[in-house]
Backbone:
């Protein structure tokens, strides 16, 4: 792979073309960013850990009937994926109050929600990825009403599957971000990644507010031991999937 051949470089991954126009190669980077890239750093081994975690979670979802862009991993930090036309929305599912939900609503950190909350954010760095109402989303023609309902349905299904799985890993799935796209047939499928970069994960064996954090909040909040937390998530996932 050469720099001039890359199709796209984001905060966490680089996409490269392959000999098949319908298949891309995603390289997972060790780079870390927070607060819309205002904070930057590097987490040693993050690329390999996230790629491996995501691959197992994609396989799990596929086995439960959720279509994803995942194909396979030729190396620990590279994933072959189906090319999709990304829907410019970040779909966030929240089970417990944390992060921006607490800041915007005044809910206390750790408040368990009566039911999962699904939110849509506009994927636009220049605007700061703003939270959108359904009416604004439709007005902007980012998706149709039918597509929005499908995204919500998929997000809730994925949430149930992942919440149950992480529970067997002694991890609580607090909230997480999903991205979807259209495949060559126009079907909506899950894309991007599922990892400690995109999920808020709390260790069920820890009661301390800081020690329980197993995700990128350790980087955001300068809690330290970021690599160790990611490694712990990886090992617990592997211990369950075998």
Residues:
């Amino acid at each position: 792979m050469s720099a001039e051949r890359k199709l796209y470089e984001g905060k966490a991954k680089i996409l490269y073309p392959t000999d098949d126009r319908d298949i891309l190669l995603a390289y997972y980077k060790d780079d870390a960013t927070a607060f819309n890239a205002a904070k930057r750093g590097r987490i040693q081994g993050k690329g390999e850990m996230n790629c491996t975690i995501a691959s197992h979670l994609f396989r799990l979802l596929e086995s439960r009937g959720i279509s994803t862009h995942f194909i396979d991993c030729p190396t620990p930090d590279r994933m072959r994926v189906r090319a999709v036309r990304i829907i410019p929305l970040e779909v966030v599912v929240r089970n417990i109050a944390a992060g921006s939900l607490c800041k915007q609503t005044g809910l206390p950190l750790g408040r368990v929600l009566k039911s999962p909350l699904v939110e849509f954010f506009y994927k636009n760095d220049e605007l700061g990825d703003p939270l959108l109402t359904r009416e604004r989303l439709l007005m902007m023609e980012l998706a149709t009403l039918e597509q929005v309902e499908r995204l919500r349905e998929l997000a809730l299904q994925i949430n149930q599957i992942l919440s149950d799985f992480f529970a067997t890993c002694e991890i609580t799935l607090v909230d997480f971000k999903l991205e979807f796209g259209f495949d060559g047939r126009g079907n909506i499928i899950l894309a991007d990644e599922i990892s400690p970069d995109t999920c808020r994960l709390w260790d069920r064996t820890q009661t301390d507010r800081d020690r329980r954090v197993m995700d990128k909040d350790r980087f955001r909040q300068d809690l330290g031991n970021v690599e160790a937390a990611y490694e712990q998530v990886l090992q617990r996932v592997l211990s369950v999937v075998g």
Remarks:
- The mean pLDDT is 96.
- The CA atoms of residues 11 and 33 lie 7 Å apart.
- The radius of gyration is 17 Å.
- The chain has six helices and 15 strands.
